Amino acid sequence: GAVVSQHPSRVICKSGTSVKIECRSLDFQATTMFWYRQFPKKSLMLMATSNEGSKATYEQGVEKDKFLINHASLTLSTLTVTSAHPEDSSFYICSAETGVYNSPLHFGNGTRLTVT
Amino acid sequence: QKEVEQNSGPLSVPEGAIASLNCTYSDRVSQSFFWYRQYSGKSPELIMSIYSNGDKEDGRFTAQLNKASQYVSLLIRDSQPSDSATYLCAVSHTGNQFYFGTGTSLTVIP
After folding, report:
1. Distance, CA of B5 to CA of B90 (rounded, Å)
2. Residue A98 Cα distances to A26, A56, B45, angstroms
3. Around Cβ B67, how many Cβ atoms within 10 Å?
4. From chain B, which residues contact A within 8 Å (Cβ)?
5. How many Cβ contacts (< 8 angstroms) between chains A and B?
6. Does the beta-carbon distance from B88 to A44 stay under 8 Å?
7. DSSP per-residue letters across chain B
8. Contact (CB<8Å) A109/B42
9. Which backbone phi and psi does B67 adopt, to 5 degrees?
10. A44 close to A36: Cβ distance less than 8 angstroms
């Protein structure tokens, strides 16, 4: 149980275009989802916390107008990287918690974004 | 002070040995503790959860929690080359806030 599906797994886009990444909880309802970014050989960096039906909470230094997060249902959150630039190339990972007390975070498989 | 601290390593152990990974946390009200394994280029996967003081065993993995000393450890017995990965310690206070350490890189040498 507690499966998180993330798509696409890899995407290559041209500089200036936008990319949407989907994160779905397949067998549970996720009130809260989290978006992370990870550069090679670096640690996870929390970008934002996404709550169903409300605006996402962004970490300091993360541009909310560049990284648009929508959590319109209890099973789907999306991250859109707008006007992507090569420096946005990274590994983006979503995670979700089941809402059960003391339950762990469950991660999607990640999306490798390359901006050319 | 960071919420969760781990020695970044790298930690190298020979195949068959015990690998010991340590983690300390700063907030005494932390209630839930998790170990994740992350292979290079992959996302983290949960390997252990622990909530009470003491040891919790699952196969070759043993998680140890000492709330008084605010540390969590992970022991991997009979280490295998396939255990080579980065191990992330995570701590939760309220269930919807999770704090991750920077991870310890483990290499098991055949």
Report:
1. 10
2. 11, 18, 15
3. 17
4. 31-32, 34, 36, 41-46, 49, 51, 88, 90, 92, 95-96, 98, 100-103
5. 52
6. yes
7. --SEEE----EEEETTS-EEEEEEES-TT--EEEEEEE-TTS--EEEEEE-SSEEEEETTEEEEEETTTTEEEEEESS--GGG-EEEEEEEESSSS-EEE---EEEEEE-
8. yes
9. -70, -30
10. yes
Q: What is the pLDDT of residues A4-25, one digit of tens each?
A: 999 999 999 999 999 999 999 9
Cα–Cα distance for residue pair A71/B20, rounded to 1 Å:
39
Q: Which member of B36, B42, B96 has the closest CB to residue A110?
A: B42
Which two structure tokens, joined as six digits, stand for A12? 């290559």
pLDDT digits (tens, 9 = 90+) for B50-97: 999 999 999 999 999 999 999 999 999 999 999 999 999 999 987 678
Residue numbers in B near A105 (CB within 8 A): 34, 46, 90, 98
Q: How crowded is the C-beta side of B11, counted as CA atoms within 13 Å?
A: 22
* HSE-up (13 A, CA, CB side) for residue A93: 22
Residue of A73, A108, A89, B90 lying closest to A81 (CA atoms): A89
Distance from C-alpha of A8 to C-alpha of A94, rounded to nearest angstrom: 12
Task: For tokens 């206070």, name the residue.
Answer: B93
The answer for B96, left when phi > 0, alpha when psi is -120 to 50, beta otherwise, is alpha
* Whether A104 and B100 lie within 8 Å, measured CB to CB: no
Sign of the C-alpha dihedral computed for residues A61, A64, A67 and A73 taken in this order: positive
